[in-house]
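ok here's the first one, seq then C-alpha cells
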Amino acid sequence: MKKLMLALSLAVLPVLVSEGVAAASELPPPRAVAQDAPDDLPPPRTTTRKPRLAPSEDTPAAAASQTSPADDLPPPAPRSRTPEGQAFAPTLKYGMDDLLLEAGALPDTPQADSYSTLSASAHVLWQPSREWEFRAGARVDGTVQAGGLSDYTELLADYTDTYVRYRSGNTRLTLGSQTVIWGRVDEVPLADRVSRVDFTRFVLDDLPDRRRAQLAARWEQNFGEYKLDAVWLPAFRGAQLPDIDSVWSPINQTTGEVIGIVSSPAIAGLVKAAKINQSQDEFGYGDGGGALRLTRTGDPIDFGITLARTRQSLPYYRVNTTEPSLTAIHPYNNFAGADAEFVTGAYTWRMELGYTSDVPVTRPTGAMINTSALDWVGAVEFFPGGKDTRVNLQLVGHTLQTDQTILELGEYYGVNGEVNTTFGQARWNAGLKFASGLNVRNVYIGPQLSYLGWETHELYVAAYYFDGEDGTVFGFHKDHSFLALGWRSKF
C-alpha cells in the first residue's frame, strides 16, 4: 500500500513542475484595495485569509487583484439616498451549498475495507431590504463503513449557517449560527479560535469544509483600513466527532490508542477497557466564551491581533482510572496572537504567532494538568509559471511549556504545503498536499486529480497516505491510508 501511495504522489509531481519559473511581472499586484461588499455575500465556510490569485490570460495583471473573502469584506458604504432607477428589489434565493458523494478503500486496516460518504447542505436566503438579510441552512451526512471489525452505518442531520444579519454603513451585526474562520495561513491558522471543528473525516477535506456552524453573536466594524471583529458564543457546541467505531475516531479501542498521546502497555489496556463518553460535553454548560480580532489592510503590510477566551473545540479526554472511562471535555483557553502578510516581488509571505494558556495535558498516571503553548507558522506562496501553478509552503512550530513528564509531544517542528496546477484549458487540476515532521517522523502525502470541465461539478480521484511515530497525529492513522473516488457539486 505504501508503495502504491508513493507512486501516486510521484506521478503527480511531473505535472506540478511543468510550468517552470515565471517572471515576477506576470504576477498580480501585491494587494487589492478594499471595496464595498456586495449585497449578496459569498457562501459561508470561507476563511478570512486573503488568497493571492494569478491573472487570467484575457485581463492584465492589474485587473486580477482580489478583495478578501466574505468574512473579511467590509459592509456596504453608507447610502444617503437610492439613485433613481436603481431601487432595491427584495430577493429570495435558495441553493445547494455542497453535495459530496465519495467511495473509498482502506487496504491496510482490519477495522474496515471500505468507507463511503454522502453529504448534502442547502440554504434559503431572503433579503427584504439592503439592510436586512435572513438565512436558513441544513445539512445531512451519511456514512457507511464496511468489510472489517468495525462496520457501522450513520445518518446525521444538522443546521448550517442560519442567522439574521443587519448592516448599515460600516457596521454589520449577525446573530445566529455562523461559520467564522479567523487566521491568515492555510490549514493551521492559529487565530482560528471561534469556529466549530468537524473531525468526522479527519483531514480528507479542505479547511473550510472541516468547520461547522456555531451559535454566535458577531459585530463587525470598519474604520478605514482597520476592522474590528467581535464574537461571543452564547451556547457552546464541541467539535463534531465521528462515531467511536469510525476509522477517523480520535480513539482507537482496537489498538488502545488516543490521538496525540504516546501510548504504553498500561495506557493501551486502559483505553481498550474504558467506557467512552464521547459527547457528554458537546453542548457544554453555558457559553463558549468570546474573542476580539483587529485587522489592518493596506501597504506596506497587512496585520492582525487576536485576543480570545474560548472553550477549545476539539476535546481533551479526561481519564478516570477507577471506572475506567474517558470523557470528552472542552476547557477554556486564553489566547493572544498576532499575524502579518506582505509581498516581496513574486512572493507573498504570511506568518502567525500565538500563545495559549490553560492547555490540558496528561501525566503518565493519567492525571490532567494545565500548561501553556507557544505556536508559530511561517508561509510563502508563489506562482511558478505565472498563472496555472500555485505553490504554498509552511514551516510550523509547537512547544508545550512545562518541565513535567507528559504523554503529549513537548515539542513539534514540521513543514507542510500544497501544490496545485491546472491544465487542459483549465478542465483538469492536479494537486498534492503534504506534511512532514522535522524532529519526529510524522508524514502525510495527499495527491488528487480532478476533472473540472463539467460546469459546477468536480470529479476526482485522491489518495491519502499516513505514517509516523507513536504520539504523532499521522502516526495514529498509519494503518488508515485511503483511496477515494468522488463527486462534489454545488448549485
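and now the second one, same deal
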Amino acid sequence: MAKEHKKDKKTEKAEEKKELEEEAEAMAETAPEALPEVPEEEEEEELGIELPFPKATIVNMLRQHLDKGKQIKGQVKVEMNLWLGKMVERMAKKMNDHPYTYVDGSMFWDAIELYENVAEIEKEKERIIKELESIKSACDVLISEVDRKFVIRKTFMHELSNQIKEAKAEEKKE
C-alpha cells in the first residue's frame, strides 16, 4: 500500500510539472514578444537575398541585449545578418593574408584588433575634443584681453588725438 501511495505522489508531481510546462508554453505564445513573423524562407525569397546566418540566431542574440518588449523590424534582422556576414568575410580575408596553412589565435586577434580598439579610439577622440575645448576657451580669454587692451589704447589714442587737435586749435588762435 505504501508503494502505491508513493507512485501516486510521483505521478501527481509529474502531471503537475507537465501542466506547468504547458501553461508556460501557452503564456510564451501569447506574450507580446511572440509576434507572428513571416517565415524565413518566404521573406528571403521576396528579397532575393541569401542570408549567411540563421535569422533566429541573430534575433535571439539581439533579444539578449535589447529591453523586453522591443520589436525588431525585419529590415534590422536582415541588415544585421548581412553585416555580420561581411564582418566574417573581412576577418577571414585578413587571416588569409598570412602565409601559413593554418589559422591560429594570434592571426584571429590580429584580424579583429582594429575593431576591438574602437572603444579606445573613441575615448582618445573625447580626450582630444576636451583638450581642444580648453585651448579654445584659453584663446577666447586671450582675445577678450586683446580687445580690452586695444579698446583702452584706442580710447587713449582718441583722447590723445583730441588733445593734440585742441592744442593746435589754441595755437592757431594765438
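notes on #2: The mean pLDDT is 80. The chain has six helices and no strands.
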